[in-house]
Specification:
The complex is a heterodimer of chains A (333) and B (361).
Chain A lengths: L7 H6 L6 H28 L6 H26 L7 H17 L3 H24 L5 H19 L14 H5 L4 H20 L1 H11 L1 H6 L4 H27 L10 H11 L11 H22 L4 H27 L1
Helix pairs in contact in A: 2-13, 2-14, 3-8, 3-9, 3-11, 3-12, 3-13, 4-5, 4-6, 4-11, 5-6, 5-11, 8-9, 9-11, 12-13, 13-14
Chain B lengths: L1 H12 L31 E2 L9 E2 L1 H4 L10 E6 L6 H17 L2 E6 L4 H13 L2 E6 L8 H9 L4 E4 L14 E3 L2 H15 L4 E7 L5 H17 L3 E8 L4 H14 L3 E6 L2 H13 L9 E6 L2 H9 L4 E4 L5 H12 L4 E2 L1 E5 L2 E3 L3 H7 L4
Parallel strand pairs in B: 3-4, 3-5, 5-6, 6-7, 7-14, 8-9, 8-10, 10-11, 11-12
Antiparallel strand pairs in B: 1-14, 2-13, 12-15
Helix pairs in contact in B: 3-11, 4-5, 6-7, 8-9
Classes of the chains: A mainly alpha (333), B alpha/beta (361).
Chain lengths: 333, 361
């Protein structure tokens, strides 16, 4: 069990003797996402003309910068053995709250309001999961509905789209090419450090591995759980807020199904859905892999209609996940 | 195992939001190959009265370099899944017309995701598109894409839904239906079917774009102005979606048992509503009159059979009109910034003939 965590210290202390074959499988399972990403990018650069251009790369990166933060939030939650289905709705709510705040107080409100609401919703969800011992799936499904409902309430059943003036400070925040990319890179880097180098990060691995064992080890299980859902809610709302700044409007019908894309990116990145194992850079690779595939499907399959795109997208995901669970099982034997 | 399940769910997630009527007819009547013949349903016709209702826009005025359309790449950004016959026909019409004119076309489908559409558009710009035709998913969320296009002096023509901004500056103009008028016609049809009195429910479309807004306002204002004995007792959104339409209709039928009329802002919601009416033990067309907008095959069939009172068309065959507008844009005359098309209106009298003529998509 202990060798499942990616924390470097744990790897060495795992103590289980592995054959070279097992080690390759272990590596593939953990590095599967990055390896496939490199492979796909290489193949696309050779066979798809126009793929390997700075314009195309920056489009892929900018277009996925803020959505990638949902996968980042989800990584923390899934490592702790939970799941957060509310991130897509929180993303939409964060955007609408920001745009609403822009129209009812200015840039300061636009930034702070989504953060506050994301934080509160996260704490409530976390408390219900940690203290009332409710299933994360159910609690965050309720959160999904609640956030969507709140969005509908402040946007007149979704029919009012609040606009962000293009010259405001808030619009500057998420605009441009480099700002979204650097924001995402910075947050991923901070998250990686938090996950591997802090007590909180280690507690997440411990809880995800075995909650009882973590409790016996003296980990503050409940407090950590509240904190991880708070982090997830806040991050999702911030992502939505930044996206609203980029779109210069609080789009109301955005974010549907984003939680599933986020979960898929996390899983492709090698984080195990049952918790206890995972990495931030794996998630980054998962996000990029999905984005690159989406880009390639757009270039080559759009002309054949949505059904062809959906088919290939679904088939590819199924292959990646089946492969990964196969590798994971080989490891466990 | 759970991981596999998650991926499976995701596989279908791409199309869950788009309205699908389950009838992906191959749009045999679309414009393939033919020049602008004046046949009944096939081609889009510019409404004579409102023909060039906007001021003319030329490439010089727009600040875009003069181009020969046949020598450059044109990009087309579709907003929603082509599992919806409207979207399928629209995409086919654009593709066919580009082929006929010998224009190189690249395209993307945003699957009802406005963030994706921004990426799609920027993507096509970096892929070398010099002119863009955009079917906007949302009226307010395309600022980054439009800004990027403007920075590179790439003109954008919007079809079927409008975007915010200034015509002939942020985008060339708009080609599409008069959604307000469509709704007014539907109101007249429904009032006629109900004998000018009774309780009506409205199934609204997805919020956040001008289509749903105009179709709601046009209907309610027409009822208020002309039919004092008709009361709109419920008005709820069903997201242009069949399953949602059915669910919402079930609830409305329970809370308003005396309901005798339904106005659905698109065909797929009407199909859902009809299922709900039948499930409640009532007969659509007899106990409860149904009208809708879009003119897809299944609903026009229902009109012919008397299940629905009438259906107003939203003609999705944008190809010929879009490309001729672009050619005028690069010519000396310029193109109108607001081209409103004349839509068909299917009633019991003409539905059967329209179906057999292949005028319905």
């Amino acid at each position: 069990m202990s060798s499942q965590t990616t924390a470097p210290a744990e790897d060495v202390a795992g103590g289980v003797t592995e054959t070279p074959r097992e080690r390759v499988f272990a590596l593939l399972q953990r590095q599967g996402g990055p390896v496939v990403l490199v492979l796909v990018v290489l193949l696309a650069s050779i066979f798809s003309s126009g793929f390997a251009s700075s314009g195309n790369f920056s489009t892929i990166l900018v277009g996925n910068a803020y959505i990638s933060l949902l996968a980042l939030a989800e990584t923390f939650v899934i490592i702790s053995g939970g799941i957060d289905l509310s991130v897509g709705s929180m993303f939409a709510l964060g955007g609408v709250l920001a745009a609403w705040g822009m129209n009812h107080g200015g840039s300061g409100v636009a930034v702070l309001l989504p953060i506050a609401v994301g934080l509160v919703v996260g704490v409530v969800q976390g408390s219900l999961i940690a203290y009332a011992r409710l299933a994360p799936f159910i609690v965050t499904l309720a959160g999904l509905l609640f956030a969507r409902g709140l969005l509908q309430a402040i946007s007149n059943e979704g029919s009012t789209t609040y606009l962000v003036p293009g010259h405001s400070v808030f619009a500057f925040l998420g605009d441009g090419t480099w700002r979204p990319i650097l924001t995402a890179v910075a947050l991923f880097a901070i998250a990686a450090v938090v996950l591997v180098r802090t007590r909180f990060g280690q507690a997440l691995f411990a809880i995800g591995g075995s909650e009882n064992a973590a409790l016996l080890m003296g980990v503050r299980v409940r407090r950590t759980k509240v904190f991880v859902y708070m982090l997830s809610g806040t991050l999702a709302a911030v992502a939505g807020m930044l996206n609203a700044s980029r779109l210069q409007s609080g789009v109301t019908n955005i974010g549907v199904g984003y939680e599933l894309t986020a979960i898929a990116a996390v899983v492709i990145g090698g984080t195990i859905l049952t918790g206890g194992s995972g990495s931030i850079y794996g998630t980054a690779a998962g996000v990029l892999l999905l984005a690159v595939i989406q880009n390639l499907i757009g270039v080559h399959l759009s002309q054949y209609g949505s059904s062809a795109s959906d088919l290939v997208n679904g088939a590819f995901l199924a292959v990646v996940v089946v492969l990964q669970s196969f590798l994971a099982r080989r490891r466990a034997l | 195992m759970a991981a596999v399940a998650a991926a499976m769910v995701l596989g279908t997630a791409g199309c869950t939001k788009s309205s699908s009527s389950g009838n992906s007819s191959s749009a045999g009547s679309s414009s393939s190959g033919s020049s602008s013949s004046s046949s009944g349903g096939g081609q889009q016709q510019v409404q004579t009265a409102a023909g060039g209702s906007g001021p003319a826009c030329t490439s010089t005025k727009y600040g875009a370099p003069k181009l020969d359309l046949t020598k450059v790449t044109v990009g087309f950004s579709q907003s929603e899944s082509t599992s919806n016959p409207f979207r399928a026909t629209e995409t086919k019409s654009i593709t066919d017309e580009a082929k006929r004119l010998g224009i190189k076309l690249i395209q993307r489908n945003a699957n009802a995701n406005v963030s994706q559409q921004n990426t799609d558009i920027q993507d096509m710009i970096s892929q070398g598109a010099k002119v863009l035709i955009v079917a906007p998913e949302n009226s307010d969320g395309l600022t980054p894409a439009l800004t990027a296009a403007k920075a590179k002096h790439i003109p954008v023509l919007t079809i079927d839904r409008t975007v915010k901004g200034t015509a002939c500056s942020d985008f060339i103009g708009f080609i599409g239906s008069n959604f307000y008028k469509q709704a007014q016609i539907s109101a007249d049809d429904l009032a006629g079917g109900m004998g000018g009195k009774g309780e009506v429910a409205v199934l609204q479309g997805t919020s956040g774009n001008n289509v749903a807004t105009d179709r709601t306002n046009g209907f309610t204002s027409q009822i208020k102005a002309k039919y004092p004995n008709i009361k709109v007792v419920a008005s709820q959104t069903a997201n242009f979606d069949q399953a949602t339409g059915q669910k919402v209709m079930e609830q409305i039928l329970q809370s308003h048992p005396k309901l005798t009329g339904v106005y659905a802002e698109n065909d797929t919601m009407a199909l859902g509503a009809i299922q709900a009416i039948r499930a409640a033990g009532k007969t659509p067309g007899k106990d409860i009159k149904v009208v809708a907008i879009d003119g897809t095959q299944q609903c026009v069939q229902d009109v012919a059979n008397g299940v629905m009172v009438a259906d107003v068309e939203t003609n999705p065959r944008f190809g010929p009109l879009a490309f001729s507008s672009l050619q005028k844009f690069y010519g000396s005359t310029g193109t109108s910034t607001k081209v409103i098309i004349a839509d068909h209106h299917f009633t019991k009298d003409n539905a059967k003939a329209a179906l057999s003529n292949g005028d319905v998509y």
